[in-house]
Write the structure tokens for this entry.
Amino acid sequence: MDLGIAGKKALVCAASKGLGRGCAFSLAREGVDVTILARTPGPLEATAEEIRKETGVTVNTVACDISTEEGRNMALAACPEPDILVNNAGGPPPGDFRDWDRDDWIKALDANMLTPIFLIKATVDGMIERKFGRVVNITSAAVKAPIEILGLSNGARAGLTGFIAGLSRKTVRHNVTINNLLPGPFDTDRLHSNMKVKADQAGISVEEMFAKRAAENPAGRFGTAHEFGEMCAFICSDQAGFMTGQNFLMDGGSYPGTL
Ligand code: NAP
């Protein structure tokens, strides 16, 4: 299927690795020029070069921390008028809420709630004027079913989800959609670090925990960044203009509800 977005411009946040990288690749394969960012220049440049080689699109890079105002300004200077915005940042650390102070909560809110909101604020009116815009927020399956050790994530992402539910109904009239993509377990660096916490708690090795959790998923495995990216590209497609304010769960069927 031709997604009808060749020649569009995308700003893909936190995209040197994992799910953001998968989204950048899938958009680039559709002919979208991408600006990708991450804090560490080495892996960022390596990913950019791989995307250029495989797809031939223009790839810009910005080494910045997107959870800071300075980082957001750098990203927006490199890609001031994106047609597509993929909001993403590292997830907050796991732990017990008794150990988190105000600074821990502010960091989580900055990265996983306020940064997406500020980036939308900076770009959505341009999208509305141009009569095309697609915003995808990478959130988490924790929005539907909280994950015990990820209280900071459960809280911050729920706040973003509530805000998006309102705004997304205001923009769709102008062919600007805003949706959330909720990853369950995907095989990325982030998953591996969370597995270590769970493995230590259970007193088994990371490899044993990894195999156990993969087997427990109804799909018998974890998801791949490629699968995630392809879903993101479809949500950004020309054909997807009638879907907004939705929370698309990708979890191999783990969530047990009928709806
Ligand atoms: P990952 O493999 O660890 O990749 C994270 C990417 O984000 C890297 O490119 C990293 O590069 C970049 N990054 C992190 N913090 C950043 C910041 N402040 N500014 C700019 N770039 C930043 O993680 P992932 O698995 O793709 O996860 C992506 C998001 O999905 C996270 O919020 C995670 O909590 C959420 N999620 C993931 C899963 C899963 O199973 N993988 C499940 C649910 C939710 P640098 O470190 O160089 O900045």
Remarks:
- Residues 14-20, 37-40, 65-67, 88-91, 111, 138, 140-141, 183, 185-186, 188-191 surround NAP (CB under 6 Å).
- The mean pLDDT is 97.
- The first strand starts at residue 9 and ends at 12.
